[in-house]
Batch of 2 targets.
Target 1
Amino acid sequence: MNKITKASIATAAGVLLLLGGGGTFASWNASADIAGAEITAGNLVVTDPGTEGTWAANGDDINIAAYRVVPGDVLTFTKTMSIVAEGDSLSATLALSEASITPANPANAVDQALVGYLEANAVLTAEGAGITESADGFTVAPGAAGIEQDVTVTVTITFPYGTEGSNNDAKTGAVNLNDLSVTLTQHTAAA
């Protein structure tokens, strides 16, 4: 092999070696620690402290299990609930759960009709520290960390008068009010 051929092969091998490592150009970089902090999540809870609630019809105390509701009646249930609301920017709404009034027999048309009248006219009100009325219901403001706030909740259920014969589809209907419940839902930030 002549010197020119050997020199050409050596040059080609050198070029290949350089090209093989061609993707390893280094760029500068650096890092530094920054002072962080520990954060703690808040809390949002509504509970039944175990106290008895009271039922009234048209302003008089009643035994709800023995009461026969008729158009024009206004039933009220009042109970104290406990709320823990922790969070610097927390805002939540207290409301009546959608499944609070259910038919005694879901297959019975008169039970379904009575649910329709009562559910459409059920309203929750609330009183207590940090409770304000808002367009969405009752807004709960944050309290002291971990401290339960007592809130008096009143559910008012009106069986409305109707036009002549309009409420007849609910005669002898039965509903279950054993599942009355409230929800406490955090407001989400507007997008």
Target 2
Amino acid sequence: MEPVTILLVDDETSVMLVLQHALIDAGFEVRTVSDGRKAIQYLGAADSPTHGLITDIRLGDGPDGWEVARAAREIHPEMPVVYTSGDSVADWASKGVPNSLMLQKPFALAQLITAISQLLNEGAMVTSAKGQLHKW
């Protein structure tokens, strides 16, 4: 059985490491990049199988998480996308790709694992009591 590979994009190293370890502990193979340009390059590489994308919105200079997700969907139209952000939740309805999820920071690591797992399984999403997990 092929491992499920997730591309994790975050420009904050400490955040990326915490999320990466949680995803690995949940059984995922994780590739990490710290900016939008590298993420788009990785997604476009023919030898880089990627089954899902988790991206922060604000990634410094260059493409942001919205642009990374749009590029991912151009390459892989059905790719599950989970956005993470502390301040961009209100923009998700207009800038997010269809059938994506938004997690508002701070969130529990279990929410991240649930979000990407359920998108990968094409299951129904459950919104948290605080409304931090949203499905479009």
